[in-house]
């Protein structure tokens, strides 16, 4: 049986399942042509649909709003399913007009596409595992894992409803890499869609939503088979398209019930997502006995074993430096244990009696532990049962996300049901900001709270929240869609991969604090009449649905706002998209600025959705600005390609920051965040900082005078690895990877850079080397230059191969042999303890074997890296290299006596201190080492002999698989791991650690930027209460959502006045030092006794020259500053930051006072 879907102006469907035809009220029809299309892989540009003339088909909605008609009826979905248990299978599908829909169009791919993400088999019967393009998906692979990515690459996802929420979910899933995605909608684009559907413009009014969306979505990932349809979704449709995840958005409750029932009965994973104004809802049903293969998303714990007892308990001891982190009842496996080898590669269920030990059970029949080994957590799958939608609706499991509003989920559970009941009773949605309708809505909620229940669903029914829901539920916000869409897309990915714990089963989210503070009242106080603070829209605009919530006056504020987006990577792209939909900077007075120093790379395309393959190599900020300008042509946006640094303060100067209304960070490092934070504190501008790490995300709100700043608290530093551990005693693969990364720089980057510097000027090079480096470093630097430019430099690839073979011998044989000569395997310390025990693994030498692929990998990579430096043609011919390597003679290594090898960092520091003392003693004379440096410089080629030598250092680039960088680091790290019997790692893991890659996924990014933009609404509202704002921490893997009030700034006091980091003394106008001192005496009752700017002291009576003191007191502060710093103040600088030590008028020391902003221009 099929249904006749609604038209674009009605959603009143009457559906009967199972036997008879279904009647549907419809007032308009869509195009008579076929409405299923396949992405043809053409290189169509992203903005083609934006060039159409403005549609004149829209009729004013003013009358509808005045008459109380449903404003959301303009954006209604078609009915998406007539789901029946028994269905005749037909060769065609019925579209929205009852026409036969023919799916004979074939998906075509170009050769360029075949190099893309997933190589799909054209045969539907093929079960071959799809290949993954690691260049594109590297960051997501670190989040999902290879197995989950393969599962995702086999998924067929149907997303019904292509308004703002549906397109957000579709975008995230397509970027994620599902095998196929069908975007479905029978309705046409209307003005109410435009506030959040970023692929729609006024030009698309009257066109099918799914078709318009498909034009843009299909460009996101050419190897995800993206199709659109406006056909009836029935059992035949689902079977034909092999749908295993059904995402339903913004549907009527009746439809949700029918789709939920069918999906549960037919084992189709079901995700139901809805938004109503400032409120969002997600429901998940993944059926019975659903397997979650990773419940928390964390990497398995690994610890170093130091001892295993041979007794009934089997106590395992680990390093006492840190807690081991294992939980009671978890499972572990051992690797590399010596002596007690029976435990290796076996799983044990453990008991945890202390934070530093655990037990594995009886080990009396095992061998005696002799040393070594690591223990790693084994993650076990968990099985979860889901109830169908109808059952969960009556007896919900609710996830709490804001502990300041514990009862909000239950209130919203009733409100979303009441919305359907209200439409059923009154034949329309509640009118925006209508008190009468809000009262009726509350009555329905009160009835639902007790209807068919022995106990009320909640004893904390909040009528004020319910009224706010009723008054804003017909609105639509892009940031809300970003939040709910990001979470819902991640749930859909969980459904097909089993990766991470799903939502069980309802999740509700609200952002009522975005309303004016006198409206949302952040308490449970019930007001009889909430003031109507919004002036409702009287004519259609692209912000219609946003104006329903906030009013036209607030929309004007958004348009006039000036915001700075710092960074246009993944977070920056999403932020700009949200800003364009919100209308920020979209009036004549407003502006959005964006800056980013980076260019677009292939790995960016997986998350940074404003970029396409043809943008690779272009600057991120300029491409992002172009893309959002196409989304909203009214947006005034300017792109910079400069970093926001002290060096660019002539660009981002006083005038620039003072004109801003706020900033949002989209940065990926702490140092840059701290600098932006300091600028915001100085200019007293609001800032929202956000960041992601895989499925984790955080948001911090910085509000002048209300909250602490970003830099007020610091994360604990990452534990550093002792240098001696890296150099001589590694025990984890992370240690060998870090050593390999340093080794790469020490061989292929730093020496070549030093040689380049020498070639630019030998005398200057010698002077800098002698002045700035220790005796030991001087010799090393000069030796590097000699090696790079001397007669021993390679002249051919054969020379490079020979050098690489000797390098292998030096690093993996000779150095280890020398270490074992100094500390033999049976070496005992002065305390009578075995030297090679605990964290020290006893190594063994590697004997080169040309038939060992890893050994040859090293020689191939090292020889080619050296060849590149000297611009010698490279080769990947492994056979050629292997044949030459076999002919190279390697002399026998003989250990040397007297070689010092530091056993620990204390010894190393003591040695370094001795070197510093030697340097200090020789500072005033020419040392023997200085003479040696001169002799070495004399032996280097003269400038005329090296003039034709061209050197090109390697700058480490992890994402280029053709440059041999990761080849070398992978081989080196694993060879050193073999030296120390450490478990080796694959290239992907080594790349992540060596490249310091931050795992990332589009869903988390979309979600966190939605949270940021909700806070921006509050900035523009002008909220004055700290409880109106929300810091957030989210982990989609658990899932966990935590929101809290920001922390207020620390208060200090001088005299009888309190101040915080936001306060300062404001001094305007350039004045003499004498007048400056008198100003502070009379105005602030403080007597300055020292004034400084940075490291320069401008005034200190005890250190001023008496001869010029009287003259200096008459000089301007700015003049004194230039004299002391010996530099002119740049023209763009209008103020100086001064610090002051002072006394009170009685001469008592005043410890802490604010800094001084001295504005002299």
List the helices and strands and how they pair.
Elements: E1 13-14, E2 23-24, E3 36-38, H1 62-66, E4 93-94, E5 100-101, H2 134-144, H3 146-152, E6 156-160, H4 164-176, E7 180-184, H5 209-217, E8 225-229, H6 235-240, E9 245-249, H7 253-265, E10 269-276, E11 279-285, E12 290-292, E13 302-308, E14 315-318, E15 331-335, E16 347-349, E17 351-354, E18 357-359, E19 374-378, E20 382-384, H8 389-394, E21 398-399, H9 408-426, H10 435-450, H11 463-472, H12 478-497, E22 506-510, H13 517-520, H14 544-550, H15 552-560, E23 562-566, H16 570-582, E24 591-595, H17 620-631, E25 637-640, H18 654-659, E26 662-665, H19 670-683, E27 687-693, E28 696-702, H20 723-727, H21 733-760, H22 762-772, H23 775-789, H24 797-822, H25 853-869, H26 878-885, H27 905-921, H28 928-939, H29 943-946, H30 965-979, H31 987-994, H32 1002-1021, E29 1031-1035, E30 1040-1044, E31 1052-1054, E32 1057-1059, E33 1065-1068, H33 1073-1084, E34 1086-1093, E35 1096-1099, H34 1106-1114, H35 1117-1125, E36 1135-1144, E37 1149-1150, E38 1156-1159
Parallel strand pairs: 6-7, 6-9, 7-8, 9-10, 21-22, 23-24, 23-26, 24-25, 26-27, 33-38
Antiparallel strand pairs: 1-2, 3-8, 4-5, 10-11, 11-22, 12-20, 13-14, 13-19, 14-18, 15-16, 15-19, 17-18, 27-28, 28-29, 29-30, 31-32, 34-35, 34-36, 36-37, 36-38
Helix pairs in contact: 2-3, 4-12, 9-10, 9-11, 10-11, 12-32, 14-15, 16-17, 16-32, 21-22, 21-23, 21-30, 23-28, 24-25, 25-30, 30-31
